[in-house]
Amino acid sequence: MSAPLATDTTSLDLAVSELREHAAVWTATPLPERIALLERMLPRIASGAAATVADAARAKGYAADSAWAAEDWIAAPWALAQTTNAYLHTLRRIAAGRTPVPETAVHDRGGRTVVDVFPAAPADRLLLNGFTAEVWTRPGTGREEVLARAAGEYRGRPGASAVGLVLGAGNVAAITPLDILHKLYADGEVVLAKMNPVNAYLRPHFEAVFAEFVERGFVRFVDGGAAEGAYLTRHEGIDTIHVTGSDRTHDAIVWGADERAEERRAADTPVNDKPFTSELGGVSPCIVTPGPWSAADFRFQAEHIVTSKLNNAGHNCVATQVLLVPRHWAGTERLLAEIRRVLAELPAREAYYPGAADRIAAATRPETSETFGDDSCRVLVPEISDPDDPMLRTEVFAGALGVLRLPGEDPAQFLRAAVEFANDRLPGTLGATLLVDPRTARTHRAAVDEAIASLRYGTLGVNCWSAFGFLLGTTPWGAFPGHTRQDIGSGTGFVHNAFLLEDVEKTVLRAPFAPAPRGLLTGAPSLSPRPPYFVTNRTGLTTMRRLTAFAADGKAWRLPGIFASALRG
């Protein structure tokens, strides 16, 4: 079914063996010590943050003091510190004899049980004012069931000792360490993390951060490519698997990579039937609801959309790939004009992920697309007309953005068309973004609520790029439930999920439509300025460096400096 591994497997076997020896020790590790391990990890995140960011920036082709490096602070040390704090918040509640999630956070909404998961701490309300997140549980799940089933690992229902394999992703630095935390603290497993060759340079940084877990035999890191990964997935010492990647990776593991793979899939006779969770991407939409936007709204949302495309050079599993816009809204062309302006003004950067240029070339045609800058990784397809256009069928995983115009004379009609198209025509269910101004949200409340309820995505961001849900820790991250191993789509299962909830269907994020102070004029005021993760933020690098330090030590004297930098952004 696969070629024998050409390299020595001794180090891989040793790592698995050492983890198996210590799996029961981790299972028996009491809650206070698990909490202490995380508390002692936070200073290590802070002390290694600058070096981690410097190595990531160098690998991606820019200097550590470049404005682009703000994304490396966000998606490495800050995300890890933020998620560590999220787990600590829940575990401390359990240690104090309280429910993992506050009882007041679980409520009914139109027959559905919803859990408020962000803001979770006072600092969240200060630093991300106006941002909220709620978890929708699966239909039929009641309030008491949500409260009773949360955090079973710590409330009398621990899992069996096990070794979990994490096949790391090569694009976003935080993916591998956050998956490790989930395996340790949510699943109760010791972890073997295989680094992706694209960002294997991060291994020393991760080993330093997880030093105590490594010393105690709870975590091991190994290097290698596809062959080493395949060997480990079949290893008798590996009990469970989590992978971030593509559906092709999943299928090769489960069905094999030989000529009989499709036959096995059809018969549902896998070559590997170990418990498997996965996050596999897709074609992510951004839905633009028509409304009475101001000139400043068009500019701000253009920056938002371009950020959702060009963060990390587009090498994100939920990078916006298709902009769904109203065909007959006068604002459509104004928005596209602002998007073009933002694309043209950004400094050059490399498309560093292997194969990016080939994927863009396969998905776009020169005669129907526009290229911006000298780096050839910013491509706009301003009008998709072919229902079989590659931009609608295949994840590009690079800096190409397509625009599809849909019918609808008013917001309600357009939203119905956009939801139907996103759900039924675009592959993948990982993340979607919905933009709607406050006035339209009020005057067409039923239509907007219906759209939010109907969109089948694991994370839906309302006026917030869905990728933000990856970063918060309290927000479960994964595909909308329903994929099977025979038709894996965007994957199965949820990670992060620091409140340790069961029966998750999706997360709904909400953010201010306009930044402070302009948000006061929209009827939905908040104190949040332009987000530091915007690619146009002038002080994002400084703000994220300061936010990371605060996330690691919680010292209040840092707050004035954070606010001063954020307001200048």
Please provide a brief summary of the model.
With 569 residues, this protein is α/β, with parallel strands linked by helices. The chain has helices spanning 10-28, 31-47, 49-60, 70-95, 122-127, 143-149, 175-186, 203-209, 211-215, 226-234, 247-255, 261-267, 295-310, 331-345, 356-363, 411-425, 438-443, 445-454, 468-471, 540-553, 559-567; strands spanning 106-109, 112-118, 132-137, 163-167, 190-194, 219-222, 240-244, 276-279, 284-288, 320-326, 370-371, 379-381, 400-406, 431-435, 459-462, 477-478, 494-495, 504-510.
Characterization of the model:
The strands form three sheets. An eleven-stranded mixed beta sheet has the order 1-2-3-18-15-14-9-10-13-12-11, with helices on both faces. The chain has a five-stranded parallel beta sheet with strand order 6-5-4-7-8, with helices on both faces. Strands 16-17 form a two-stranded antiparallel ribbon. It contains 21 helices and 18 strands. It is of the alpha/beta class.
Which features would summarize this protein structure in a list?
569 residues, 21 helices
Spans of at least 5 consecutive residues with low confidence: none
Number of helices: 21
Largest sheet, strands/sense/barrel:
11 strands, mixed
Q: What is the global morphology?
A: globular
Helix content: 40-55%
Q: Report how far the terminal alpha carbons are from each other.
A: 54 Å
Strand content: 5-15%
Strand element count = 18
Radius of gyration: 23 Å
In terms of quaternary structure, the protein is single chain
Instruction: Please identify the structural class as seen in this structure.
Output: alpha/beta
